[in-house]
Amino acid sequence: MPQVLVPTVCPYCGAGCQFFISVEKERATGIEYMPEHPASEGALCSKGNASLEVIYHQDRLRYPLKKTGDGWARISWDEAMDLIVRGLGGALKKFGPERVGFLSSSKCTNEENYLIEKMARCLGSKNIDNCARLCHAPSVVGLNRTLGAAGMTNPIPDLANSKCVFIIGSNLAENHAILSRWIHRAKDSGAVVIVADPRMTHTAWMADIFLQLKPGTDVALLDGLAHVIIKEGLIDRDYIAKWTRGYDELVEAVRDYSPEKVSEITGVPAEDIVRAARAYAISPASVILYSMGITQHSTGTDNVQAVANLALICGHLGKPGSGVMPLRGQNNVQGACDMGALAEFYPGYKKADDPGTAKFFSSGWNVSSLPVGRGLTATEMIDSAASGDIKAMYIVGEDPANSDPSSNHTRDALEKLDFLVVQDIFMTATVQLADVVLPAAVWAEKEGTYTSTERRVQWSQKAVSPPGEALSDLEIVCDVANHLGLDFDYPNAAAVLAEINRLVPQYGGITRPRLDGMGLIWPCPNEDHPGTPILHIGGFKLQDSRASIVPVQYRPAAEDASWDYPFVLTTGRVAVHHNAGSMTRRSPSLIERDPELFMEINTADAARLKIADGDEVLVTSPRGETSARARLTDKVKRGVVFMPFHFPGTNNLTSEVTDPEAKIPEFKVSACKISRRD
Amino acid sequence: MPVYVDISRCIGCRSCEVACKRVHGGKGHVNVHMAGDHASVPVFCHHCEEATCTMACFTGALYKDGERTAFDVEKCTGCGLCRLACPFGVVWSDKIAHKCDLCAGRETPTCILSCPANALSTDFELASRRARTRAAMAVAYGGRR
Amino acid sequence: MIKVDVNKCLGCFSCSNVCPSQNITRTETPEKRSVNWKKCKEECDLCVEFCPAKALTLVPYDEASPETTVTYDLVSCKICGERYATEPMLKRIESSLPANLQKDSTGLDWIWICPVCRRNIEAERATKQLVLGRSRKSP
């Protein structure tokens, strides 16, 4: 039997690596690397290498299910659709589309995300969102406002051209591993690497300057860097004069952020702040990479704007080796946002509260009217479910019961819904709460496009068939939409892509025939356009082509250590796991390498609490409690503890306070107390 | 020529461990060790010139094949003496032995292809060349930090 | 029938692995290893051929002979205390290797240390220079 090699896009992080799945006798038997890939050069992190372990796992959902008194009953697709018409359709009729919520999946393809938001809006609901709300919503809001576009400004291989790499709030060595090779190439050519993180991570191992700041003090640090750069005259005057507006307000705003004052707030030595500022400003091409450490805060949007400000006053945009790079976590969170599965945006980032947007899409979709106005975000949907305002929800490929903060509150909220239908590949904690369960296909079992963090749109091919009666999300969504009275006639993903080409200007030229191979980078407005690897070369897509410098002031995080809760808990990821862990905790190669929830605690703090390495500890916050295995280390400073969120339990503790604009929860700063579990 | 690590590049992602295990039917030959608080290094078979595992093996299953320390599974009886004879603890034996075979039959060892940080190579001089280049570049930039 | 010279047996399980008729059984606990040779009537001599210590011979079947069982306490690693090998096996390694290869560059008798500790020591040795250098660099 000949072995076929099928090119697919890795289902894990946003780096967008591709690899071949070798298929023999209709089974996925192995992986072959793809050395031609521009971002990965064939490399794969541990998660990518273990990805096949998910496909044939015994826990895969194979059949539609309905909840019975004490368990689940297998039902047919027809019966599932009937239940959905009665439950979801019923809620739409009885309570109105305002009281129904839709959560799309940042793991599904662009085509699937596009259809889910189209379905929600054609049914009259504004309440469509995806888990970007929990990760890069501040980037979507903040970068659209400052730079006119929300996405990595330069491509991944371009990192090698940089002379100063500033990594803040990102542990890319573990979570976007392939970026490391490009950063090391930059280092080999003389680049300085600056890393800012409360924790000494594997990423910090690459650093020449390490800024170990207190969780939640990023604006102070960034304003402090801007202060030094302005004071020492290291700004790029020509660039500011030509391409920005708002510089004078920034000068005023950072006047008081002297290195000494910032050092007091952040805990970073003043001379390091000066060194870092000089290194960033003096280098001919500097790049800033950031991720959850910047966004998952009640000041997330401010943090992002402060990052953009730094790049703007030094002119480090629109040229090789420079840029502002939000590192998107999920394989298709960039695409889910591009396709408008967001409460405040339609596809292509057209604003939902602009009547012109509704007009454009009513004509494009051939419907008489569409809702105008910003809908409920993912976090607001949960609160509204708790208060009884949202009556029914359709959740695709999302696990709010594990991913949202304050898990106890989230679970209670979902249980209160009249009707919940969840579409997924495994019985996650969220699926457990559903009334109807729809079994879906994994990445290898369907085709479509995914947009990586460098805005590269790639086509992933189908390698094998889904198990049992599971179907691709595209087929399921069309089925649901048609049963609810819409007319979704799409024979395959390519047909949906053709519609996307027509209605999303940034994807205009990203047509199916052009996508065999390494994909295209948006904006790509027409079929002759080669794609746009570097953004903002000739200015910004804002008024007068000028970027907006938006000054921000430091505000402390919502919670701080107190008498009752003396530790600051910060959360994050580890290399062998991914997000809520539903896939990686089921992969033997990965779970054996990091088997359980742990807590990193400073050695001196542990000694005071009489906790030894390996002890089980009880961690409690105002929202709940959980157990964890203690790991004594000096990676974190005194007063700070770290827990990964890949295991259920961490989010029992995290704070639900959100950023006022982007509505992202403050996962990165919670107060807690710790005791040995004896 | 064994696989060498540029330790300044190792990010502790354990991709080499998982990849090695995947292509060897579930039995891998790499272990990544964490050193200090944030450094890491995978420990590989050194393919020693004076390979003690080959000296302990009484059937000739382990033997030197040029620079590579090779293993012929047909001759192995699972006695486990090789496991005890390796000073670096990188030979395993459980009913049958297994160790790094430099992915015989493939063009390049899998770990080298898979490493996201491009830290692995069969070129011994690579790490020191890179370090020397970095130092030279730092001087060339006149300490502009 | 198998005759065992218990003074030569290493406790390596080689004979048990190669026996095609399950006549040699073994047990292993974290502390001990035992091998039990049944009184077989087979004609093959795989166990004799594949015993590294040449401890086995074939003799005519004798009803009166008892079955032989041999038990070894596993030796503890000198660093972590984990039990990892039988003493005869470790002594055999000593006699298979030239003296100059039995101590590592720091003079450590690595044979009496378990494979896990050996890997750790190697990892420490490899990274020591770099880690120390980095920590000295930070103010």
Description:
The complex is a heterotrimer of chains A (678), B (145) and C (139). In chain A, strand 14 (345-346) and strand 15 (350-351) form a beta hairpin. In chain A, 31% of the residues lie in helices and 19% in strands. The N and C termini of chain A lie far apart (58 Å). With 678 residues, chain A is an alpha/beta fold. Chain B is an alpha+beta fold and 145 residues long. Helix content of chain B is 28%, strand content 18%. Chain B has five helices and eight strands. Chain B has a two-stranded antiparallel sheet with strand order 1-8. A two-stranded antiparallel ribbon of chain B has the order 2-3. In chain B, strands 4-5 form a two-stranded antiparallel ribbon. The mean pLDDT of chain B is 89. Chain C is α+β, with helices and mostly antiparallel strands and 139 residues long. Chain C contains four helices and six strands; from the N terminus they run βαββαβββαα. In chain C, the strands form two sheets. Chain C has a four-stranded antiparallel beta sheet with strand order 2-3-5-6. In chain C, a hairpin with a 6-residue loop joins strand 5 (68-76) and strand 6 (83-86). The longest helix of chain C has 23 residues, at 115-137. The termini of chain C are far apart. Chains in contact: A-B, A-C, B-C. The A-C interface holds A 210, 269, 271-272 and C 138-139.
Brief sketch in words of this structure:
The complex is a heterotrimer of chains A (678), B (145) and C (139). Chain A is an alpha/beta fold and 678 residues long.
The low-confidence parts of chain B are: none
Order of helices and strands of chain C: EHEEHEEEHH
Compute the gyration radius of chain B: what is it?
17 Å
Rg of chain C, alpha carbons: 21 Å
Task: Write the SSE topology.
The complex is a heterotrimer of chains A (678), B (145) and C (139).
Chain A: E1 4-9, E2 18-24, E3 27-32, H1 46-49, H2 52-55, E4 65-68, E5 71-74, H3 77-95, E6 100-103, H4 110-122, E7 128-129, H5 137-146, E8 164-168, H6 172-175, H7 179-188, E9 192-196, E10 209-211, H8 218-231, H9 237-243, E11 244-245, H10 247-253, H11 259-266, H12 270-282, E12 286-290, H13 292-295, H14 300-313, E13 323-326, H15 333-338, E14 345-346, E15 350-351, H16 355-365, H17 378-387, E16 392-396, H18 400-403, H19 407-416, E17 419-424, H20 429-432, E18 436-439, E19 448-451, E20 456-460, H21 473-483, H22 493-503, E21 520-521, E22 547-548, E23 567-572, H23 588-591, E24 598-602, H24 603-608, E25 616-621, E26 624-633, E27 640-644, H25 650-653, E28 670-676
Parallel strand pairs in A: 6-7, 6-16, 8-9, 8-12, 9-10, 11-22, 12-13, 16-17, 17-18, 23-27, 24-26
Antiparallel strand pairs in A: 1-2, 2-3, 4-5, 4-18, 14-15, 19-20, 20-21, 23-28, 24-27, 25-26, 25-28
Chain B: E1 4-5, H1 15-23, E2 31-35, E3 39-43, H2 52-56, E4 62-65, E5 68-71, H3 81-85, E6 92-93, E7 97-98, H4 110-114, E8 120-121, H5 125-140
Antiparallel strand pairs in B: 1-8, 2-3, 4-5, 6-7
Chain C: E1 2-4, H1 14-18, E2 24-28, E3 32-37, H2 46-49, E4 56-58, E5 68-76, E6 83-86, H3 87-96, H4 115-137
Antiparallel strand pairs in C: 1-4, 2-3, 3-5, 5-6
